[in-house]
Write a structure and sequence with these properties.
This protein has 384 residues and is α/β, with parallel strands linked by helices. Helix content is 38%, strand content 15%. It has 2 domains: 245 residues, Type I PLP-dependent aspartate aminotransferase-like (Major domain) (Aspartate Aminotransferase, domain 2); 133 residues, Aspartate Aminotransferase, domain 1 (Alpha-Beta Complex). The strands form 2 sheets. It has a 7-stranded mixed sheet with strand order 1-7-6-5-4-2-3, sandwiched between helices. It has a 5-stranded mixed sheet with strand order 8-9-12-11-10. α2 packs parallel to α9, α5 runs parallel beside α6 and α12 crosses α14. The longest helix has 21 residues. It is globular.
Length: 384
């Protein structure tokens, strides 16, 4: 299959997944074997032991790489397993620069795991690429950003940051979980490696935990292949199959997420109980122009700050029926959560406040339910 000739929707269904040669099965088989017979010592069919490589995992890695326009793909047992493996390309005395608004687990990984390993981290607001340049040191070995960010939905100009990192000879990692390759392809904008929590939109059904790293850099790919096998934080074949199954509807799902989230964000923007709405599709969003430039849609995530602070947020979350109060995002079902208490509790309160994560902030993952049903649920929860 000449994968480069096909659109993303087609790649999501077919890339890395030709019909199974023995039976002609059109769906990728789940190969549960932990080990593979060798014709002679060291002579095998490309697989030795399932930590090192598995046919179902290879199909997923090939498909994900095709979607991001990468030459190499690596799947992991969680998004944080992918992030931790990438962190292990650094060593004691190295430094990384990270966006100031990131998933709480990413902050915890860099601050509580990386620092004891001797890896220093600086967190900066990357809306101005000049701040990235100013934060670089001779020991900087990685720059990391999310865009849109979690949970404030700030947008960073990937191409502008990539210009800074390229001039400094530093790899740029972009967490593309919120946007997905349907809306944004960071490698085309100059990133070195793309990070995903496949738990979220890529799988899309809230029934798998997984992660991935995608790159076209041959030296980095060689190092990641070694670390993936050496550390061993790999997904099960069944989980790989589940993500592959979810990917087949990625395009249609993401487009519907965007359509519904855009309408809901507009209505929340006018609601008297809402102090401010953070959604890249709104014209007053500070990164609206950047979104128009580097994204094909503003995404399915909305954050809003309620008048009344913590009490108002807790009351709203307690009144919701269709939106479940739960962590995670990107599934067919709608979810609502309180970042300060839930997903970003690992960030110190003073740092949360400094970057704008207030106690009245609520994050919404808009699912695929009927738009009017979702809005009725939100309106009831916000009433009073």
């Amino acid at each position: 299959m000449t994968e480069h000739a096909w659109s993303l929707d087609t790649l999501a269904i077919h890339a890395g997944q030709p019909p199974e040669p023995m039976s002609g099965a059109v769906m990728q088989p789940i190969v549960l074997a932990s080990t593979f017979a060798q014709e002679a010592p060291g002579k095998h069919k490309g697989y030795e032991y399932s930590r090192s490589g598995n046919p179902t995992r290879r199909a997923l890695e090939t498909c994900l790489a095709a979607l991001e326009g990468a030459k190499h793909g690596f799947a992991f047992g969680s998004g944080l397993a992918a992030s931790a493996t990438l962190l292990h390309t650094l060593g004691p005395g190295d430094h990384l620069v990270c966006g100031d608004d990131v998933y709480g687990g990413t902050f915890r990984l860099f601050d509580k795991v990386g620092r004891p390993m001797g890896i220093d981290a600086t967190f900066v607001d990357m809306t101005d690429p000049g701040r990235v340049r100013a934060a670089l040191r001779p020991t900087t070995k990685l720059v990391w950003l999310e865009t849109p960010t979690n949970p404030l939905l700030k947008l960073f100009d990937i191409a502008a940051v990539a210009e800074v990192t390229r001039a400094a000879g530093v790899p740029l990692a972009v967490d593309n979980t919120f946007a997905t390759p349907v809306l944004q392809r960071p490698l085309e904008l100059g990133a070195t490696v793309v990070v995903h929590s496949t738990t979220k939109y890529l799988n899309g059904h809230s029934d798998v935990v997984g992660g991935a790293l995608l790159t076209s850099d041959p030296a980095l790919a060689e190092r990641l292949a070694f670390l993936q096998n050496a550390i061993g934080a790999v997904p099960s074949p069944f989980d790989c199959y589940m993500v592959l199954r979810g990917l087949k509807t990625l395009g249609v799902r993401v487009r519907q997420h965007v359509a519904s989230a855009s309408r809901i964000a507009e209505r929340l923007h006018e609601h008297p109980a809402v102090l401010r709405v953070m959604y890249p599709g709104l014209p007053d969003h500070p990164g609206h122009a950047i979104g128009k430039k580097q994204m094909r849609g503003p995404g399915g995530m909305i954050s809003c700050e309620l008048r009344g602070g913590l009490d108002a947020a807790v009351r709203m979350l307690g009144r919701l029926e269709l939106f479940h109060c739960a962590e995670s995002l990107g599934g067919v079902e709608s979810l609502a959560e309180h970042p300060a208490i839930m997903t970003h509790a690992s960030i110190p309160p003073e740092q949360r406040r400094a970057i704008g994560i207030g106690d009245g902030l609520v994050r919404l993952s808009v699912g695929l339910e009927d738009l009017e049903d979702l809005w009725s649920d939100l309106a009831r929860a916000l009433a009073g």
